[in-house]
Amino acid sequence: MIPLLGLLAGIVLGLVLEPSIPQALQPYLPIAIVAAMDALFGAFRAYLEGNFNDRVFVVSFISNVLIAAAIVYVGDQIGVGSQLSTGVVVVLGIRIFTNAAAIRRALFHA
Amino acid sequence: MKTPGAMSERAERHVGPTEPPAAERPSRNRAVDASMDLLNQIIRHPVDPDYALVAQRGGTPPRLRWGLALVAVLIGAMFAVSALQTTRTAPALAVERTELISRVQAAETQQDELRARATSLSTEIAKLRAAGLGTDDQAELLEAQINTLDPVVGNVAVTGPGLVITVDDAAGADQQGAGNDVRDRVLDIDLQSMVNGLWLAGAEAVAINGHRLSTLTAIRGAGDAITVDYRSLTRPYRVEAIGDSKTLQAHYVESAGGAWWNELKQNRQMRYEISSAKEITLSADPGMVLRYAKRASR
Description:
- Chain A is an all-alpha fold.
- Chain A is about 85% helix and about 0% strand.
- Chain A has helices spanning about 1-15, 30-50, 55-80, 80-110.
- Chain A starts with a helix and ends with a helix.
- The mean pLDDT of chain A is about 85.
- Chain B is elongated, with a radius of gyration of 38 Å.
């Protein structure tokens, strides 16, 4: 319940307040979102499996976002930023799909 | 390290010194798809392993409710901000693009105006020069020299008999898709060789699509278009040349440029039409300005 309410509150806050992201951080926002989606799907699956823990979720979310951003940042510095962000998106995308399949199986038994 | 493994390794090495040590040999029970370990790992462990670890540890694990709420709010805000930004920048980009296009068009019309003005100014210069030179013998000699040289270098409009050559891309060359060959289109090098052939055949003045060629004119490709004097041309290309009407066409066809274009017509099915004209008028090249070269002192 808390995460759903929080998500809705966040979306409303973002739409109402329209905070502007600093120019330097803008390239990392999409990557951070993909990492966040990965954390969300993983958390939901863990919740369905009965071993969800909010502390683990918070720590894994923050560390995933930071690591993804760091990978892209390092890639930008050595000139392969777009390739590395593609790599991050591919890896996280595979995880998201696998988790989504597991969630589907758990919810609909299909 | 006195493990059994190390012992047996030592024993093996002792028996067969030429064999590589056991650690370097691929073990027999190695998975077939071990080389794809990364993908396997991603697919097999999509959930953070810590969830299972903490659950295994038992007891009541430490909670972090506020952190969870905060992170949820943060994620929601990230989605909203990102979507907002994308939807808001899309029309801005379109506006920027149309603005750039209109700026390019404005610059082109301004360029045309400036060229027209340059042409009218140079005729005025010629008039004033004639007036200023007066009528003594030396002045008349200079005037005669100017009158001979101006048409040659392309500084004034000229008229006379000559050739009109019309060329165009092969039919279907501008269609996108398979079978579309860039060599089916007229390239800058094709026009260059044609013009060179015309000069070789004795042409005295040449213009492409109305742009008079001088010694300072460049014919080159820029993106998809051919530019003459840094102005892009549109198809079809119409090359006009003034020269001896009896010999110009024959000499041109025999030249390397003529042979080049014969081949293009036969092998690439490009449009290529030569016709002679009794009278062609070619405008002056308004770009005839020397910025660095000066007359050497005599």
